[in-house]
Here is the input.
Amino acid sequence: MNTLRIAPATSSLVIVDVQERLLGAMNAGVAERVVGNLGILATAARRLAVPAFVTEQYPKGLGRTVANVRDAFGETLAMNPPFEKLEFDAMRNAHFARAFTHACPPATRPHVIVAGMEAHICVYQTARGFREQGYSVHVVSDACCSRTEENFRIARGLWERMSAVVSSTETVLFDWLGKAGTEDFKILSRLIK
Here is the structure.
């Protein structure tokens, strides 16, 4: 399997724990950039029919998924609401794991694009869980954050050590698009200007 080349037909998007109270603990400038990039990924996934999943870690204490991300998913999130969990690794949550592997089996959708927070805890452990199940994992670095820069640097090292592809929002977007000149390109390329 080519772990670097992704396409809408072979990938899925998982946004991990981008919740109201957790976002408030992040550096404001970093949080704004991350939420903006998550909005781009969510909009592109919706437009290109990439299956998308959202998780929420203990929403009673950390709140719900932030409005900007919910809005970018539109009706998609209403049909596939966020998965509530207590596990740091979403793949250890039986409800999430069952729904995800049913919709995106590794044989037909081997690439999982992962983003969210915190980079060194839930993003890392969820990405590791996907790797353990045989998926190729692409972690979108500029759509992830941690409360401290040191923990974010540690997360990047952990992602690389487990053989995840460390990527960016634009890299994922343009890999999904594949070429210029299409209607999808015209609409989605406006998101990064």
